[in-house]
Design a protein that fits this description.
Helices cover 28% and strands 25% of the residues. By secondary structure, it is an alpha+beta fold. The protein has a 15-stranded mixed beta sheet that branches. Strands 23, 25, 26, 27, 28, 30 and 31 form a 7-stranded antiparallel beta sheet that branches. Strands 34-39-35-36-37-38 form a 6-stranded antiparallel beta sheet, sandwiched between helices.
C-alpha cells in the first residue's frame, strides 16, 4: 500500500495526508517513475476533495511517497495543470521531481581539476554546490565505490550546472551510478560502481504468476563479423634521420625571385646567394644600371633592331641574352630566357661576372661555374619556410588576424590568437601550399578547427592547417605522407586559412589554444623572414619597451625565486629594502614580484614597488587588467599572471606571480602550516612545493576579514616556451596504427564465420592503444572474438507486485521466467512505473543485455522448438474438435482429451489464453465441469451440440491465429 504526505514548505516537519486508502484519502491518478540514471518523478491528478487541490506552490510544496513505512520518493512540485472534465469535475495534475533535481539549482564556476580521484572530484563539486543553495538543498557525500584508472586526467568545469558537471565528467566518462536518499532530515549522495542485488530465489518475474506481458527487442547492429584489430599509433621516424626539407643546413634557400615594387635589387642579392657568390651594394647598383640600360626592367622585351636581330638571333629579356649564350650559362631547371631570375642566375654562372657586367654593353667571358644550383630554392620565406600563398608575397595582416593579443581579437578567450589567419581579401587563391616540410601526423575534424591536418617536421615543429577546408576532400594529403615546403597540400574553400605552429605535443597544444604560455609560436617571422633576420629584428627593438619586444623571460624571474629561497630570504614589510636586489636577504611580496617582473622583461631600471603602485608598473610593462572583482572561484591561469589581493576600498595587501599555468610563487609571512626550510619566506604553490594552488587560493579567498577583492593582470606579449607538453626526442604519434597484416598473410582483418552466417558481413575496428607487436595484437583480437556479444536486447515487462513477494526495486536483478520470450536469466530493473491507485501493478524497464553468439543461437533454437511443439499440439486438438463435430466417439472423453493435451503442454501463456477463451473468471476445475455439462447437452440436443462445436471451432481458430503470431516472433 502506498501513502503520500505533502508539505507546504521543504523545511516543514508536519505534513498532511493526500493519499492513504487506510484513511479513505486518495488521488484520482498517480504514476511514480523510479529510474536508474535520471531524475525520478511523480505525476498526481487530484480532484476538489483532495486537501492538495489548489494548495501547491511550485518549487516550495514537497511530497513524500511511502511503500508501507519505507520512504521511496521525496520531491518538489513543478508547474501544475488545471482542467475541467465534461462532467463538470475540476482536476489538477502536478509533476514532482525528486531531490536529485536540487543539483540543477547550482552552477559550477570555471575550474580545472587535475590528479583527483572520482571521490575527490565529487567532493569539490558538492562543496561548491552547497555554498550556493539553502541548507535543505545541500548534500552530504556518503559512499563512493567508483574508482578510475584515469584519475590523473584533467577535468575542466565550464559554468555548467552541478548535475550536468557530474554527468559529463563522472557518470558518462568513468561510469557508476549517482543515488540520492533523504533520511533523518538530510540529503545523502552515494556514487556506486554496482548498486543493487541479485534475487535468484525470491521475487521472480514468472509467467502464469505475476508476469502480465513481456517483450524483448533484439538489436544486432553493434555486432562485428569482420574484425580489424588496431594497435598503438606509429611514431614518426627517428629525428636523427632526416625525412623532409625542414632542417635548415644552409642548402635550402628562399627569397624574392621577381622585382619588388619595380626594384630588382633584392632578387639580384638572392640570385647571388643561390649561386654561392658574394655581391656588394656597389655591384648590385651596377647590375641594376645594366638592367635599366638593356631592358628597362622588362623580363620579356625582345630587341628586334640591332645587329643580333639582323643576324637572326635577337637579344631577349632582362639582361638581353641571345639564346645561344643564355643556354651556355643557364642553370638546370631555370632555363626560361624570358624570366628575369633565370637570367640573373645565368649571369652569376659566369666565372668572370664581376668584371664582365658593366654599362655600355656587356657579355660573359668566363667559364660555366655550375650545371645545377648548389642549393635548393624553396617557396619564399625564411630558410626552409614558405608562404601558403606564395604568389602573393608578404602583405600586412589585419590586427585581428595576427598572432598573440591584438585589437580585434577580443572575442577570443583571453584575447589570445594562437596562429595567423590568411584571409582571402589580402591572400587570394585556392591552392594551399605547405609552409614547412614534414610528415602528416593528424587529419580529421575538430570543433573550433573544422577540417584540419597537422605536419611534424624533423626539426621539431608541428604545423596545423585549419579552418580553410569545407570538407575532408579539400585536404590533398594523407596521414603518413611527407610534404615539402611549397607543395600544394589542400584547396581553400572558406574565407581564410589559419596556420598554427608549436613545438609541443599537438594534443597538449590544442588544450592550451587560448593560453599564452609559450605553447604556440608566432608563424609570421618564421614564414616571411629568416631566423637570422628575426633575431636581428629582436635586437633592434627599443630596450625599455618590453611590450614591443613581445617577450617575457619568465626563467629570469624564476632564478631570482630559487636564489631567494635557497638563501632563506626573510620577510620584511619594507619594500624599499634593496638587499632583495643584491643578496636576497630580505623582501616582501611586492618587492619580490616587482623585481621578478623587472628581470623577466629585462628592465634596466631596478625600482621596487608597493602593491598599490604595482598597478601602474604592470600597465607600463606589457600587462593588461584581465579581471577585478570578488569571486572566490579560481580562474584558468597562464604563465606570468600577477595577482593583487586585498579588501575592497582598502590598500591591496598581497601580490604573487604565476611561474606557469599550475604553479604560483610568492614572498609571504607564512601560514598555519609553518615556515619552510628553517624560516625562509619564499613559497611555491603547485603540483609540488609548499602547498597546492587550490589550497593557497582557498586560504586567501576565505581568510580575509572584510569584503574580498582582487585583481588579475595578464601579459600581452609572447612568453617563451615552457617545459610542459614537450615532445620528447622530436617524435609524435602519427595517427597511423599497427595492424596484424605482417603476421596474417597481408590481411589487416580477421573473418568471424559463425557470426557472418548469422548476420552477414559487418566490418568493425577495435583498438588496443598500448600494443605495438603484431603477434600480440593478433592474440588479443582472437580473445576478443571469443568474448564478442551477439546482440543488444532491450526489454519491457509488465508485472504484478503480489503480496507474497517483495516489491521490485530499481538497480536490483530478478529472475525472468518465460520460455516463449527468452531463456531464464537475471535481468536488471533500470526503471519502474508504479500505479499509485493500483498498487500491485508495475511496469518494469530492463537494462540492455548483450548475449554471446551461442546464447543468442540457443535461445532462438529453444523458442523455435517450443513453438513447433505448440503447433503440433494445436493441430492434434483441431483434429479432435473436427471428430466431435462429426459425432464420432465419446464427446465427453474427447473434450477431456483436448483439455489434457493443453494441460500437459508446457505452454503456460497459451494455456492461459485458452482458459480465457473457455471461461475468463472460473478456475480450471470449474471450466472442466462446464465442459462436461456441455457434452451432456450435446447428447440430448443435436442442434445444441452443433452450436457448441461451432463455438469450440471458433475458439480453436482464434488459438491458431495466436499461434501464427508466436511462430512469427520465434522465427
Amino acid at each position: 500500500m502506498y501513502r503520500i504526505i505533502a508539505y507546504n514548505e521543504p523545511t516543514d516537519t508536519a505534513g498532511f495526508v493526500i493519499h492513504d486508502p487506510a484513511v479513505n484519502e486518495s488521488v484520482s491518478e498517480g504514476k511514480l517513475n523510479l529510474k536508474q540514471s535520471d531524475v525520478n518523478d511523480l505525476s498526481l491528478t487530484i480532484n476538489q476533495d483532495n486537501p492538495l487541490f489548489g494548495n501547491v506552490r511550485p518549487m516550495h510544496t514537497h511530497v513524500e511517497v511511502y511503500d508501507d513505512d519505507k520512504l521511496i520518493f521525496r520531491g518538489r512540485a513543478l508547474k501544475p495543470t488545471r482542467e475541467m472534465k465534461d462532467s463538470g469535475q475540476f482536476l489538477q495534475t502536478y509533476v514532482f521531481e525528486d531531490i536529485s533535481s536540487y543539483l540543477i539549482d547550482s552552477v559550477q564556476r570555471f575550474l580545472e581539476v587535475r590528479n583527483a580521484t572520482p571521490k575527490q572530484f565529487l567532493e569539490k563539486v558538492i562543496e561548491e554546490h552547497n555554498t550556493q543553495v539553502p541548507a535543505y538543498k545541500q548534500f552530504q557525500l556518503r559512499t563512493v565505490t567508483v574508482d578510475n584508472s584515469k584519475d590523473n586526467a584533467l577535468r575542466t568545469i565550464d559554468y555548467a550546472t552541478t548535475q550536468e558537471t557530474i554527468k559529463k565528467l563522472l557518470t558518462d566518462s568513468v561510469g557508476g551510478f549517482l543515488i540520492t536518499e533523504y533520511k533523518d532530515g538530510k540529503n545523502y549522495l552515494d556514487y556506486l560502481k554496482a548498486p543493487g542485488k541479485d534475487h535468484n530465489n525470491d521475487t521472480p518475474i514468472r509467467i502464469t504468476e505475476n508476469m502480465q506481458s513481456a517483450s524483448v527487442t533484439i538489436d544486432p547492429s553493434k555486432v562485428i563479423t569482420r574484425l580489424i584489430p588496431l594497435g598503438a599509433q606509429i611514431e614518426t621516424q627517428n629525428p636523427d634521420k632526416k625525412n623532409d626539407d625542414s632542417s635548415d643546413d644552409g642548402t635550402k634557400l628562399s627569397g624574392p625571385m621577381h622585382a619588388v615594387n619595380g626594384d630588382w635589387g633584392p632578387a639580384i642579392k638572392f640570385a647571388a646567394q643561390c649561386m654561392n657568390t658574394k655581391v656588394t651594394n656597389a655591384q648590385v647598383s651596377t647590375i641594376k644600371n645594366v638592367i635599366q640600360h638593356e631592358s628597362g626592367g622588362s623580363e620579356t622585351v625582345v630587341n628586334n633592331w640591332d645587329s643580333n636581330a639582323a643576324a637572326g638571333h635577337p637579344s631577349k629579356g632582362l639582361l638581353q641574352f641571345i639564346d645561344k649564350t643564355f643556354k651556355a650559362y643557364a642553370i638546370e631547371g631555370y632555363t626560361d630566357i624570358l624570366k628575369g631570375f633565370d637570367q640573373l642566375l645565368a649571369m652569376f654562372n659566369d666565372s668572370n661576372w664581376a668584371s664582365d657586367v658593366h654599362t655600355g654593353g656587356w657579355g660573359p667571358t668566363g667559364k660555366r661555374r655550375y650545371d645545377k644550383l648548389p642549393v635548393e630554392i624553396v617557396a619564399s620565406g625564411g630558410g626552409n619556410w614558405g608562404s601558403p600563398f606564395p604568389s602573393v608575397g608578404h602583405v600586412a595582416f589585419e590586427s585581428g588576424q595576427l598572432f598573440g593579443v591584438h585589437p580585434g581579437g577580443e572575442f577570443r578567450k583571453n584575447g589570445f590568437h594562437d596562429g595567423l589567419d590568411f584571409g582571402t581579401a589580402k591572400y587570394p587563391g585556392t591552392d594551399v601550399h605547405a609552409v614547412h616540410g614534414g610528415r602528416v601526423t593528424h587529419k580529421g575534424y575538430m570543433g573550433g578547427l573544422a577540417y584540419y591536418f597537422v605536419t611534424h617536421s624533423d626539426d621539431g615543429y608541428n604545423v596545423v592547417y585549419q579552418e580553410a577546408f569545407g570538407s575532408s576532400s579539400n585536404i590533398k594529403v594523407r596521414i603518413g605522407d611527407y610534404v615539402k615546403t611549397g607543395q600544394v597540400v589542400g584547396r581553400r574553400t572558406t574565407n581564410h586559412l589559419h596556420v598554427g605552429v608549436t613545438k609541443k605535443d599537438f594534443n597538449y597544444a590544442v588544450a592550451h589554444s587560448f593560453t599564452n604560455n609559450g605553447t604556440w609560436i608566432d608563424p609570421e617571422p618564421l614564414i616571411f623572414g629568416s631566423e637570422k633576420k628575426r633575431k636581428l629584428q629582436a635586437k633592434q627593438v627599443v630596450a625599455d619597451s618590453p611590450l614591443a619586444k613581445q617577450a617575457l623571460d619568465i626563467e629570469a624571474g624564476v632564478k631570482l625565486f630559487e636564489a631567494a629561497k635557497s638563501s632563506h630570504l626573510k620577510y620584511e614589510t619594507n619594500y624599499l629594502r634593496a638587499d632583495i636586489l643584491s643578496n636576497q636577504a630580505h623582501g616582501d611580496c611586492s618587492s619580490f614580484v616587482s623585481y621578478f617582473l623587472e628581470l623577466a622583461v629585462h628592465e634596466t631600471d631596478r625600482t621596487l614597488y608597493t602593491t598599490d603602485t604595482l598597478h601602474g608598473f604592470l600597465k607600463k610593462h606589457g600587462y593588461a587588467l584581465h579581471y577585478e572583482g570578488n569571486t572566490k572561484t579560481l580562474p584558468a591561469l597562464q604563465t606570468g599572471d600577477v595577482f593583487i589581493l586585498g579588501k575592497k576600498g582598502a590598500q591591496p595587501s598581497h601580490t604573487a606571480v604565476m611561474k606557469d599555468a599550475d604553479t604560483l610563487l610568492e614572498c609571504a609571512q607564512g601560514w598555519s602550516n609553518g615556515y619552510d626550510q628553517g624560516g625562509a619566506d619564499m613559497f611555491e604553490h603547485g603540483k609540488s612545493g609548499d602547498e597546492n594552488l587550490a589550497a593557497w587560493w582557498k586560504r586567501n579567498s576565505q581568510g580575509w576579514k572584510g569584503e574580498w577583492y582582487w585583481y588579475l593582470y595578464r601579459f600581452g606579449g609572447n612568453i617563451p616556451e615552457q617545459e610542459s607538453g614537450d615532445q620528447k626526442g622530436g617524435t609524435i604519434k602519427s595517427g597511423v596504427r599497427y595492424t596484424i597484416a605482417p603476421v596474417n598473410d597481408g590481411k589487416d582483418y580477421l573473418e568471424i564465420p559463425d557470426f557472418q552466417k548469422e548476420f552477414g558481413i559487418i566490418n568493425g575496428a577495435v583498438t588496443w592503444d598500448d600494443v605495438k607487436d603484431p603477434n600480440e595484437l593478433l592474440s588479443k583480437a582472437k580473445a576478443w572474438i571469443r568474448n564478442q556479444k551477439a546482440s543488444t536486447n532491450s526489454w519491457n515487462i509488465s508485472a504484478l507486485e503480489l503480496p507474497d513477494y517483495d516489491h521490485f526495486k530499481v538497480y536490483d536483478r530478478y529472475l525472468f521466467v518465460n520460455p516463449y520470450v527468452a531463456d531464464t536469466q537475471l535481468l536488471t530493473v533500470v526503471s519502474k512505473e508504479i500505479d499509485i491507485t493500483n498498487p500491485f501493478k508495475s511496469t518494469l524497464t530492463i537494462g540492455d543485455k548483450t548475449p554471446k553468439l551461442t546464447d543468442y543461437q540457443n535461445e532462438n533454437r529453444n523458442i523455435s522448438k517450443e513453438v513447433s511443439k505448440l503447433a503440433s499440439t494445436v493441430t492434434t486438438i483441431s483434429g479432435d474438435v473436427s471428430a466431435m463435430r462429426g459425432g464420432a466417439g465419446n464427446s465427453s472423453s474427447q473434450l477431456q482429451t483436448i483439455y489434457d493435451r493443453l494441460g500437459n503442454t508446457n505452454v503456460p501463456q497459451l494455456q492461459k489464453d485458452v482458459e480465457g477463451i473457455q471461461d475468463f473468471s472460473k478456475k480450471a476445475d470449474e471450466r472442466l465441469t462446464t465442459a462436461e455439462t456441455d457434452l451432456k447437452t450435446v447428447k440430448e440436443d443435436d442442434e445444441s451440440t452443433k452450436q457448441k462445436l461451432a463455438e469450440y471451432e471458433k475458439n480453436i481458430a482464434d488459438l491458431d491465429e495466436r499461434l501464427k503470431k508466436l511462430e512469427g516472433a520465434g522465427s
